[in-house]
Amino acid sequence: MTKFLLRILVLWISLLYPIVNAQIKKIGVPFITNYNPKTYKSASENWDVLQDSKGMMFFANHFGIMQFDGVRWSIVAQPENKSMVRSLAIDKKDKMYVGAQGEFGYTVQLPNGQYKYTSLVKLLPDSAKNFGDVLHTVIRHKEVIFFSNEELFIYKNNKIKVIRCEAKFDEFFEVGKEIYVSDNVKGLLKLENDALVEIPNSKEFIGMKIRKIFETNEGLIILTQKKGLLVYKNNQLKPFVTEADNVLKQNQISTGILLSDGYFGIGTRQNGLIVINSKGNLIQHINKQTGLQNDYVTNLKMDREGNLWVTLKDGISMIQISSPLSKILDTSNSETKIYCSQIYQNKLYIATDNGVFWLDWNAYKNGQHENVHFQHISGMSENVWNIGIFGNSLLAFEKNGVFEIKGNSAQLLARTDGAWQGVLIPNHPDLLLVGGYNGLYLLKQINNSWVYQHKIKGFEESSRVIVTDQNENIWIAHGYKGIFKMRLNKTFDAVSNIEFYNDKNGFPSSLFLNNFKIKNQILFGTTKGVYKQDTHSKKMIPDNNFKKYLGMNSHIRLLKEDPQNNIWYISGENTGKMEHKAGGGFTVEELPFRKLRYLYIPGFENIQTTANRDVFFGTQEGLIHYNTTKNKKYQSKYKAIISEVKCIFPKDSLLFSSRYDVLPTNIESANTFSPVLSYSNNALHFSFASLCYDEADATKYEYWLEGFEPKWSDWNLQTEKEYTNLPENEYVFHVRAKNIYDVVSEEAVFKFEILPPWYRTTWAYILYLILFGVLIYTIIKYQKNLAEREREQLILNQEKELLRNRAELNEQKLALEQENMAIMKENLETTINLKNAKVASNTVNLIHLNEILLSIKELIGQIDKNNDFNTNFGLLKKINRIIDHELQGDQHWNEFEEIFNQLHDNFMQRLKTSFPELTPRDMRLCAYLRMNFNTKEIAPLLGISVRGVEDTRYRIRKKLQLSSEANITEFILNF
Predict the structure, then answer these.
(1) What distance in Å separates the CA atoms of residue 886 and residue 853, rounded to the nearest whole number?
(2) Are 265 and 283 in contact (CB under 8 A)?
(3) What is the C-alpha separation between 90 and 15, in angstroms, rounded?
(4) According to the 3-state scheme, what is the secondary structure of 239-264?
(5) Is the CB of residue 898 less than 8 Å from the CB of residue 908?
(6) Helices (DSSP H) in 889-945: which residue ranges?
(7) Residue 198 has pLDDT above 80, yes or no
(8) For residues 332 and 536, which has the higher predicted lDDT (pLDDT)?
(9) What is the distance in angstroms between the CA of the first residue and the CA of the last residue of the chain?
């Protein structure tokens, strides 16, 4: 019970929080975000607005209850009769009560995101069902009050009490803990004990058309449609005079809201929103001319961040009344880009790309916005880069030269090729150095007027950023080259000395360099922090004081000291203020200026400060004002939400969505919603947002799909994420947001499970196991059958192989026998032929021998002792010649050689070819050795002695190149 009461207390404090802190500025117009019907894609008319405990915004729209989550708009519910919604109320459990046209009821959000509407009209008796628009819905204690012009309905304990009027109710008011009703016959009535009773002097209120009642210390403040404001105190009704009476009476009050510090926000039908304080002073008038998209205000509500939501006849606007920043706008809206601003003689001047404009600053800051607007200074219509006060003169530096502003016109002082800015030369307050497009120019003050003197010789560079130090050095920053340091000669007509510094002298880069003068010290803005010049080495080094607060990773675009000795800076895209602490050092404040990101004109960033703590920022969207006395809480907690979840495949199918009538509403209520999806739906798309409405477009997000991704994503601006081909698993999608103030939201989660495909389910695995067993059995059975068939086939094949081998063996045997027979036949034929040849040869030889013997016998027969010696000697010689001739046996040898070659594979030819130096006698000896004859057998065949045979063998050995150890007979046999 204690925890429950504590939660109620925290919720109550959170609901009161924006009222306590929502103080609206008087200077300028707050930032306004307009949402037109094209943006939210619904009906133009909106009648009420509320915020639930999460921070979600809901609007009573003509088409139903419209929801806005900071990113997306959608209709989430409609009354049972589909009529337009006129009023909304919400309890601590986010049960939303709805008043519509002839209908009222309540709606609750289901786990799948849908809003289920339940009508309460069925609890009414038939006689009470004929009523019109339910203009107000209020939750009070344990009851809900629905108000229509015909009847008042009090819903409690599932019963409805009906309070009827005699004629017609006009309006309904919740004032603190009390309920008032305006009656066209009885005047102003008060609800007491479920009955309407007249207040004292109630008849005075008849016909007043009261639109709002506020409870204050001064009594009841009555807002009427056409008679302005009244105060009811001590039963007396008196006019409440304000500075806005004329506007309020002429433009018909439609609604109102109580703001902090006794401020009243008053909506009108014809002239937007008017804010006055408790004394009736005009604080703000915001209408179509100053940024509101429509002048007909239907309702006003504050959110927990201190933003004022304005529902309009045509659209919705969010006014950031709690912001210390505001826009100083001209009703003619003629100024555009602001390059510089200056307050001079109680007038605010702005330098723009269309010349210079001014307005009465005192009147404007005192709230006289209606009659105060910017006026153009004639004489200049080009880009004016700078304006400054020099002596008693206001000078403007323009494309065509230097001008002096007097009244509503500008007078040309010096025509130059463009003028950027001017600085006074130290110790010479009558000399003005002007930086131009192509060098420097000198002006001199003569008789309180600035007179052009000449162009400075010796320097021709663009001189847009100039500062001077106490030593009369002139420092000029060139954004694309570097820093120039120079001195002028004594006559101030030429440069006497010049030095140049770039990245070679210590700067991290030569690009985008700036120079500033802070506390009489020259500092340099670089792309990597603040630098200064070392007094000894003259090198450029990081400044440790600024390094501590601004770091070394940002581009320092501007440093400026204000009258309170605070240092304003623009670092990267961040604007900030460094304020001195009592004990030394600085406190850095950046959060109030996060809205200025990306608004500055690159290269022309400007901040103007005043002694009254007014700060002006020149931007591309006009002049923005900052007041240090206006505080806003930037660390407010907020939630990230998941707007929609859908499956992508096989077709878009929603799982979670608040959009009206896109999912079933007949499901049971539950605290959690965790869908279980089939594997075919394993591609999901998530849409998300954050319930922080301040610069919602700049909010960044990070997300993480637990179960699929190892860590959070990087921060980015996208508000959607999709995942495809997710495997089966249990998942949790996380998302959180980070707003422009670097506050991280509470994360939103969405749990879901993806089932495995049917082929990876438990039953599938059991089936796989069974099929696997059957498969193994089948394989084993098959293998056995196959082995048996293979064994039988192997035996059969072996038998066939054996028979085939036998047949082949027989064939080979027969072929071998035939071959042997052929060889034997061939050898036999050869032998026979050789023998025949030998027989024939021997026969021939025998015949020849017989012939020789007969010749010798005949010659011997002729030898006679009677013959003389010479005759017999001659015969003997003749016989001897015949014998010698036969011994040479050339003819017989040829025949022998032919037969020998046939028997010994052409031995004689091969030997002669290999050893051509062998003689015929050598060849014969080799043939006899081949026939394995010994020396004694060879000698008579050669007709020489044994000794001669040995000598011949020795010569042959040499010709055959045989060593002494080699056997000549073996060589011949193996040749």
Answers:
(1) 11
(2) no
(3) 12
(4) ECCCCCHHHHHHHCEEEEEECHHHCE
(5) no
(6) 890-903, 907-914, 920-930, 935-942
(7) yes
(8) 536
(9) 128
H-helix segments, 474-617: 544-550
Give the pLDDT of residue 951: 83
Neighbour count for residue 628 (Cβ, 10 Å): 17
Structure tokens at 343: 């307050």
Q: How far apart are CA 330 and CA 346, in angstroms?
A: 17
Cβ atoms of residues 830 and 837 within 8 Å: no
Do 392 and 448 meet the contact criterion of CB atoms below 8 Å apart?
Answer: yes
Classify strands 567-571 and 574-580 as parallel, antiparallel or unpaired.
antiparallel
Degrees, nearest 5: CA angle 799-801-804: 110
Per-residue pLDDT tens over the stretch 839-860: 444 544 555 565 676 677 777 7
Percentage above 70 pLDDT, the chain: 91
Task: Report d(CA 293, CA 272) in Å as an integer.
Answer: 9
Interatomic CA distance for residues 394 and 406, integer angstroms: 8
The answer to whether the Cα torsion of 844, 845, 850, 851 is positive or negative is positive
Which of 654, 672, 747, 732 has its CA nearest to residue 702?
Answer: 747
The C-alpha atoms of residue 894 and residue 912 are separated, in whole angstroms, by 15
DSSP 716: B
What CA–CA distances, in Å, run from 775 to 92, 113, 764, 790, 888?
65, 50, 16, 21, 99
Residue 509: both structure tokens together: 């880069």
> Can you give the pLDDT at residue 50?
96
For residue 875, the 8-state DSSP code is H
pLDDT of residue 856: 74
The H or E element containing residue 341 is strand 338-344
Burial of 587: CB neighbours in 10 Å, binned 0-12, 13-18, 19+: exposed
Measured distance CA(223)–CA(266) in Å, rounded: 8
